[in-house]
């Protein structure tokens, strides 16, 4: 016989999972500990989670060191550092940026660890730790994390968009993560919304990302400055999306216009996604989505103009992500939990 | 004790369902007869299906008569005409064009029956027949039918596109029909691919449908003829998409260009959908998709140019729909079977 003491937040969390039918005595007994890993741009994070607690029971963060060799050994070391001593770990979940095949667990390329090319990450982890492992990309898993633990709780159809250097997507349909046949679904930044439009980071033209990402905002400002437009922004130095947002807050007309255009095209892209997925919530993550009315005033006007039927907006929640830096870890955790339940 | 005699096609069908795990002894026992209804533009069709047979055990087709009153009574009459005398019917499935809420069974508007406005179709059918009824729109159900009985058999992630007067979509994700929160998902013809592009039938601009539908092809030809371009096509009369395809087959440069442009934009749209859904098969239905190389030569070039990673095309099947006029009935049947299995 024993008693478990939860913090108030954890008790609420366990109760909510139970009430939402995402947890039951049987599942609790099956799933004790999940190890989650987030291979981020600056930091490699690992944590161990007890299924009934929101907070990790162990957590470690080290620098990613993208160009150093022996990345897999360094990864193993971080995982071992947070591995629970006296409890069984059931599965490992991993979040990584860049193209990955979640069905085979092969990381094709990741900017954060240069030596990995078609690297069989989950097979290697399973070989080492003797338990199942799953991987998916960071945007998909941030969406999954927001659905399970964040702003999307209680929703069954979720559209998550990260608006940052690029634009990425994660989609939940009827409580399942949209992955696709090759595991490449929800690459929503790479939707053509203007044939022969501006160049995108991927090499194609006119994608949503080429208009509404930080890079797109910077490109527009650079073009206008080159054409001789007046602004408080420096005409030859690189102006970051953040610097542009600061200039906009000081009333700079060019900076304001740059964000307004990004918001307008974001509304066009999101209308397309409403027509495609018809979610009940749209969640925005990423640095550029922190710009408030600068971006979202024109976004709202444009979204309302573009939807083909007002019913798409009935009860639709549009909100910000809640989980911040932990979304990768929590998404990796949610992925492992979801796969174990299958 | 008794023996059931199947035709060879039906025996193969039952075996396939069983092997694919879509049928089992338990489900067979649960689901004996489904009644399917297709409210089409010219004909109202109804059929009764035994779960183990591909061919209907009863079938009737009458004219739709969109503007006549008492549509529901006429519908009831057609259904009663094919209702099996000595067997239990488990559910009714209905296919209808136009916006419908599959979650509540309310037909908002349908061009084929003008008197129905926010008409609670499934509730009325259940009230009359005492069994559950489900409804969804024709493009979704044609996609579902192709997945279960047609070109998409054995695939788990299917993108169906009908290219006809308009462009419609139906999407299957991991063996489930994508319906969305309001039941309005997969309205894929209404994806903006060219901001401020040509006017679409829905009143917005630059949608895939405004370029690649029969209407889009006709619009392009009319514009070019108005501008004085030479062609065998009549400069003032209306040229239908079919007439334009005939002119193209005779070598008319304008007609050839009209189809080629439609195919190019269709490739751009489908690339967007691969990035969003990542299916293993793309199935084309609808009259305009019967145009062969006229449409699909430029489509293929454009699709290959537009995908952001060649992996989307690995093993991807691109093919024509198999079910023709019966796709509405078979989709309505598949919907009812799917819902009963839940």
Task: Summarize the entry for a quick read.
The structure is a homodimer of 342-residue chains. Chain A is α/β, with parallel strands linked by helices and 342 residues long.
What secondary-structure arrangement, pairings included, does this model have?
The structure is a homodimer of 342-residue chains.
Chain A: H1 8-19, H2 25-30, E1 33-39, E2 43-50, E3 58-63, H3 71-82, E4 89-96, E5 100-101, E6 106-109, E7 117-120, H4 121-129, E8 133-137, H5 138-149, E9 158-163, E10 167-173, E11 176-177, H6 208-212, H7 214-226, H8 241-249, H9 253-277, E12 281-285, H10 293-306, E13 317-320, H11 327-341
Parallel strand pairs in A: 1-4, 4-8, 9-12, 12-13
Antiparallel strand pairs in A: 1-2, 2-3, 5-6, 6-7, 9-10, 10-11
Largest interface: A-B, 48 and 48 residues
Q: What would you say the CATH architecture of the largest domain in chain A is?
A: 2-Layer Sandwich
The pLDDT mean of chain A sits at: 91
CATH level-1 class of the largest domain in chain A: Alpha Beta
* H/E element order of chain A: HHEEEHEEEEHEHEEEHHHHEHEH
- What is the overall silhouette of chain A? globular
**Count of individual beta strands of chain A:** 13
Structural classification of chain A: alpha/beta
CATH fold group of the largest domain in chain A: Nucleotidyltransferase, domain 5
CATH H level, superfamily name of the largest domain in chain A: ATPase, nucleotide binding domain
The termini of chain A sit apart by: 30 Å
> Oligomer, anyone?
homodimer
Widest sheet of chain A: strand order? Answer: 3-2-1-4-8
Runs of chain A with pLDDT <50, length 5+?
Answer: 1-7, 23-31
Rg of chain A computed from alpha carbons, rounded to a whole number of angstroms: 21 Å
Helix percent band of chain A: 25-40%
Question: What share of the residues of chain A does DSSP label as strand, in percent?
Answer: 15-25%
Largest sheet of chain A: 5 strands, mixed
- The total number of structural domains of chain A is 2
Count of runs of 4 or more consecutive helical residues of chain A: 11
